[in-house]
Amino acid sequence: MQASFTLALIAPLTAGLLGSLLCEALLKPRPRPFWQRGIAASSIHVGSWLLLFGLFTLLLQRPWFAVVFILSLQLVIVQSSNTKSRTLNEPFICHDFEYFWDAILHPRLYVPFFGIGLAIAASSAGAVAIGSFLYFESSLLSQWSGASFLLATFGIAALGALLVGAGLYKLPSVSLAPAADLHSLGLYSSLWAYGSALMRSSPPAAASSPFSAIAKHQKPAADPQMAAGSRAPDNAALPNVVLVQSESFCDPRPWCPEVASTLLTHFDATRAEAIQHGDLEVPAWGANTVRTECAVLTGLAPETWGARQFNPYRTLTRHPLPSIASAFKSQGYRTVCIHPYPATFYMRDQVFPKLGFDTFIDVSEFDSHDKHGQYISDRAVARKIGRLLEDDDNRPLFLFVITMENHGPLHLEAPDEARLAATLPNAAWPLPEYLRDLAVYLHHLGEADQMLGSVKTALNSVARPGLLGWYGDHVPILPAAYAHYSLPTGSTPYMLWSTDLVGQTPSPAPAGHAPQKIVANELGVRLFKQVFGRDISNDVIKAEPEPQEQE
């Protein structure tokens, strides 16, 4: 019996543990060697393997099948982490497990980055392996008594759980810099550490939002006593406010000299006229739009969220916070969001009503002919904005827009030679590999620029004054272009523009014309101040010089 036990369990358990370390070595960038990680991190790795081996052997009754199955799952995570590191500059963390479900619901957004061929090959190989092991490897229950089998597998899993618990107790707090934590802790330990940090973290308090004091006091916008000393305009004078989060919007000309200088004519003109403009430090690279989105809407910096910062909307479904939308709503605005994608994605259908939006317009209110490329076009979204601005119900409008046209995967579209004159006028055809995705991106970036011009025209065409905020949520995913040219800074442009400035000749140093670099959570606050002035501020929205006072 002892020899049988050793052969049946100890050999696959040991081989699998060594295999887990070999799989981990495939990570890019590679973690610190196992023996240099410290006792706590090493204990978690060994304990994780014992726990998984015990549970899957209990389930599958075939220890070698369990080893191959666990290592296959680990390879999926390793490949996912490498892909994420290559495209988003961030490795896989425990928060990302929920994206496997999103990949099933929205495969276009995820599977192409992993590799469609690789996904098919892995699925096929998995099916063959399952069938082979079920046929060739005998069940332990056919060799052992049920009591012996349960005692052995539960004992291994229990020992693993104890090692994981002891390791987590001694493990230092993570830095919440995923790449650094993965390097120092290794894959298993970093996943456990981030999961533990997430469970221990508390949601931000409502009072921490800079919009808290404003949003909880519902007063008519025409009330001249809206706040002590405030200069509240009457309802008719309040501007319509449009805040556009343009998908992957950035200015590529500083890092790619081949881009046509005339690609962003409306952006250049708007920046020259803007009340404020500059670089926006965003907490995302290539994807994870909701991190930037949440920062702008709630006014809270990522560090306020702790371990919840990587997907704050999951927290907001249960713990809503004041936002710029609820602040505008409290002052008599109707609040609308446009996002031409399913409202359920990132649970926006649950989050946005709690943030103070009256209406959510998603992809169901667009038609198939509104698509350009893979998604609803920016021009179609601009037409929707124009119709909402014309639909005057005597209340000013706050409209938050999340575009989709320039969302990846860019390699699913083929570049068009006819469009190169407007984007890459000196590029040779056929395009080299590093320019293919860039050419697709630049075409859609030009469409975003046209949308910017259309929104400004729409704001100018109605009687009520208009204020426009425009920013990019993150830089695009263009690893081949970045490798050939250079990496961008990671920041995106932002602008605040007003119809009140139309037709005015800027002075040599107009108010706010000098670029101002800000972080994403400051943008919504600055937009709100442009409407109501600095004196509506509370202790969190700190008084700042008005734009006309800045030199």
In short:
The protein is of the alpha/beta class. The chain contains 21 helices and 10 strands.
How would you describe the overall organization of this protein?
The chain has helices spanning 2-24, 39-60, 63-88, 98-105, 107-114, 116-136, 146-170, 178-185, 187-200, 212-215, 265-273, 289-298, 302-305, 312-316, 324-330, 348-355, 378-390, 420-423, 433-461, 479-484, 520-532; strands at 240-246, 276-281, 334-338, 359-361, 371-372, 375-376, 397-402, 466-472, 492-498, 518-519. The protein is α/β, with parallel strands linked by helices and 551 residues long. The strands form two sheets. The chain has an eight-stranded mixed beta sheet, sandwiched between helices. Helix 1 packs across helix 2 (39-60), helix 2 (39-60) packs across helix 3 and helix 3 (63-88) packs antiparallel against helix 6. The longest helix is centred in the C-terminal third of the chain and has 29 residues, at 433-461. Mean pLDDT is 88; it is low at 221-232, 505-512 and 535-551.
Helix content: 40-55%
Mean pLDDT across residues: 88
Distance between the termini: 86 Å
Count the beta strands.
10
Structural class of the helix and strand makeup?
A: alpha/beta
What is the molecular shape?
elongated
Helix count equals 21
- pLDDT < 50 stretches: 221-232, 505-512, 535-551
Report the sheet-strand fraction: 5-15%
Radius of gyration, in angstroms, nearest whole number: 27 Å
Mind describing the biggest β-sheet?
A: 8 strands, mixed
Strand ordering within the main sheet: 4-3-7-1-8-9-2-10
